[in-house]
UniProtKB/TrEMBL annotation:
GO terms for cellular component: endomembrane system. Belongs to the 1-acyl-sn-glycerol-3-phosphate acyltransferase family. Residues 1-61 form the Phospholipid/glycerol acyltransferase domain. Keywords: Acyltransferase, Membrane, Transferase, Transmembrane, Transmembrane helix. The chain crosses the membrane at residues 195-221. PANTHER family: 1-ACYLGLYCEROL-3-PHOSPHATE ACYLTRANSFERASE-RELATED (PTHR10983), 1-ACYLGLYCEROL-3-PHOSPHATE O-ACYLTRANSFERASE 3, ISOFORM E-RELATED (PTHR10983:SF24). Residues 129-188 form the Acyltransferase C-terminal domain. The keyword Transmembrane helix applies. Pfam families: Acyltransf_C (PF16076), Acyltransferase (PF01553). This is Phospholipid/glycerol acyltransferase domain-containing protein.
Length: 231
């Protein structure tokens, strides 16, 4: 699994910020430089400011923390953490145009037996072995220009809390109406064949790279490709 994450440019952590800070900056700068070598010159990085999955116990703990710190008490999201977001944005501020803010909702269809059993979100097992069953998902999207996001810690904290206050309201609206406010765009779902083709295609490439690394052939192949390309 670690190799897959490495190939996808995951930022590796020890979950100890004092130790991770320098490593995070180093990996983010490397990612930005690597993107400049490609024609598009673009890249994206995913951050979950809540830091963990939303579960009843975690929500309760988050609400208690918010009351203790005199923060807004959320009903649908956790109190966000800003360290990872702040260091990422401040490191990449000159390399990115904005932040794409996503809020995800799963409609609770009354005739869906899975929902009747209290299951409204797909698990990893459902996604991999769901037997072709479809899960409906709504995603609220907005783009926030980098220039609108502050840099100082306290200002970032206030800004992030306002963002999550809006998320909490969006999810409350979603629960009441079954959709987010605003214009709706429907996207065509991809087939199981496309999913499997992507999965096994990427897996084949990853396994091949690991094999060539293990036998020491990858540098040789890379050199030959550069030689052919230069001609």
């Amino acid at each position: 699994m670690g190799w897959f994450w490495k190939f996808l440019n995951f930022v590796f952590l020890e979950r100890k910020f004092d130790k991770d800070k320098a490593n995070i900056i180093k990996q983010l700068k490397a990612l930005a430089e690597k993107s400049k070598q490609h024609k598009s010159g673009s890249f994206w990085i995913v951050i979950f400011p809540e830091g963990t999955r939303l579960r009843p116990q975690k929500l309760k703990e988050s609400q208690e923390y918010a009351k203790e710190k005199n923060l807004t008490v959320f009903q649908n999201v956790l109190v966000p953490r800003i360290k990872g977001f702040q260091i990422t944005l401040n490191t990449l501020r000159e390399d990115v145009d904005g932040v794409v803010d996503l809020t995800i909702g799963y409609p609770q269809l009354e005739d869906d037996k899975r929902v009747q059993k209290g299951k409204i979100r797909p698990s990893v097992q459902d996604l991999l072995f769901g037997g072709g069953k479809k899960w409906h998902v709504h995603v609220h999207v907005r783009v926030i220009p980098v220039k609108e996001i502050p840099e100082e810690t306290e200002a970032v904290q206030d800004w992030m809390m306002k963002v999550f206050e809006e998320k909490d309201k969006l999810l409350t609206h979603f629960k009441q109406h079954g959709h987010f406010p605003g214009e709706v765009y429907k996207y065509k779902s991809i087939s199981m064949f496309q999913v499997l083709a992507n999965f096994f295609g990427f897996g084949l490439v990853a396994v091949s790279v690991m094999y060539f690394l293990s036998v020491g052939l990858l540098p040789t192949i890379g050199g030959l490709l550069r030689l052919v390309w230069s001609k």
